[in-house]
Amino acid sequence: MKKIKQTLIVAFSALALTSTSLRASSHMDAPLITLDPAANTTDVYAFVSQINGVKYLTAALAVYPFEEPGVGPNKYNFDDRVTYAINLATGNDVKTGNTTVSYSFTFNTSYKNTNTIAQSYLGPVNNVDDANQNLTQRYTVQKAAGKAKTTLLQDALVPPNNQGLVTRFYNQGDNGENRAKEGVAASNLLDKYTAQTVYTTPQGYYVFAGQRDDGFYADIQSIFDLDFTFSGPNKPFDSQGGFNVHTIVLSIPLSDIPGGANQVVGVWASTSRAQTTVLSNGKSPKENGPLIQVGRQGNPLFCEALVAIVDKDLYNRTNPTVDDATFKKYALNPELATILGLPQNLRTNRTDLAGIFIPDLIKVDPSTAPARLAGGTNPSAAPNDAGFNRLSIFGGDVLTSSIQAGFGNGTIPGGWPNGRRFGDDVLDIAVLALESDLRTSPPTIAAGASTADVDRVNHNDIGYNKVFPYSATPLNGRNHGHH
Question: What pLDDT does residue 134 have?
Fold first, then answer.
């Protein structure tokens, strides 16, 4: 272990005890939710963005893990019977885990022709919902703040999945034989399908929902193979490389967030189903009763790697309000620290980790400038913003807050643990946090933190967009690989 620059140590410690989230995910966090992929949350993102000079809090929820590109005849979709929600906590609610504002997304699926085996496409799709897009999904977005409910958007279109030849505009050179297009740095360069399904509301929100590349990258296989050296002839290996997910992205004007920009905001996501489903021969299922939460996500590493099997399903059914009483013990005495072979002093009474995980919200400081964004590593991809570092604070990528002392003079992380951006190397950051002791004064930071490459997977398999909806183009079913 070694000490890093004093200002960084103090800042990381201060933020860790008041906010943050360790972000890593195998996408298979609890037993029951793995049986319900359409409601299974994979990742949540939250960061400060800017569009046309206006600052936003951008939040994203991805669901449906391990979508193999190009499947058929049935394909992956949002589930009409699931309510997807992005939840915000502001003011005192950040400490208690209560929800201040919730944004719900509900979907409706229709077909142009059901007397065909061509379930999704009747021919090449030249525009979203044209005559050749047989299956179309539309959605509604509602905002709930206390008892007040507002419909922000109705009948918004979901773009088609990236099949290949029939969805050529997703792919390089508008050729369905080619790999998916890399991320871009200007909205007018977005592929046609994505551009046609980016919506703005009268209140100034930006909204998108559709299939995207899985933006999380890490060698999860080695972790659950108990190979913490991440070695072998087939390594490094990005366990999520080559797969898509379905992603909802919402950019919320800071002026529409209770309390505005001068506060830390907590973000978490949930999925819910009707209390009962009635099945009968020859008839469609009937949904009855109130909505019941079946999944939630704030810090995926918490449920996945810290919460014991006996409580994993309970975690998904409960809200962050119970975290202090029910789940804090798992943060205080993380079994993962023992599995990783960490020293005894890092295995018990981890009040620093409890400060990170309890309640289980991603915390974002909207008082800063917009977050630096990741692009990609391929020559055709938009480059990373100047100063972006996948290790965030550990790599010197910082922002200045007007509401937190942070590292000193308001300096706080540019990414995790100040929210989470597409491109943050969350596995490496999470391991470094576990190996560091933020209870000491000054805190002891893991050796080699500034250049860490824990699992040797240090970039996504496709470049991200640096404009809304930020997530990367869905991979082509006709031309993709698994890494």
Answer: 98
Work out the average pLDDT over 97-114. 98
Quote the pLDDT of residue 300: 66
Q: Residue 404 is encoded by which pair of tokens?
A: 């937190």
pLDDT higher than 70, residue 287: yes
DSSP letter at 442 equals S
> Of 29, 34, 56, whose CA–CA distance to 45 is shortest?
56
Side by side, which strands form the sheet with 41-51? 41-51, 54-67, 244-253, 206-213, 199-200
**CA 390 to chain centroid:** 15
Is the per-residue pLDDT at 30 higher than 90?
Answer: no
CB within 8 Å of 341: residues ≥ 6 apart: 228
Provide the token pair at 200.
């703005």
Q: Name, in order, each residue with C-beta under 8 angstroms of 275's C-beta and a sequence gap of 6 or more.
A: 288, 289, 290, 291, 292
Q: What is the mean pLDDT of residues 47-62?
A: 97
Closest CA to 193 of 156, 166, 154, 160: 160
Residue, of 102 and 339, whose pLDDT is higher: 102
Structure-model confidence comparison of residues 216 and 445, the more confident one: 216
CB 455 within 8 A of CB 218: yes
Backbone angles phi, psi at 118, to 5 degrees: -80, 80
Other CB atoms within 10 A of residue 23 CB: 29
Q: What are phi and psi of 147, to 5 degrees?
A: -90, -10
**Based on C-alpha coordinates, what's the Rg of the chain?**
22
Q: In the prediction, which pLDDT does 26 show?
A: 62
For tokens 């973000």, what's the residue?
267
CB atoms within 10 A of CB 265: 31
CA distance 46 to 264: 12
Is residue 333 over pLDDT 90?
yes
* Position with higher pLDDT, 13 vs 311: 311
- CA–CA dist 310, 190 (Å, integer): 45
CA distance 155 to 313: 33
85, two tokens: 């929600």
| Per-residue confidence (pLDDT) for residue 260, from 0 to 100 | 95
What is the DSSP annotation of 400-415? E-SS--BTTTTEEESS
Are 302 and 97 within 8 A, CB to CB? no
450: which strand partners?
Answer: none
* Angle at 293 (CA atoms; ends 288, 297), nearest 5 degrees: 155
Cβ(313)–Cβ(30) under 8 Å?
yes
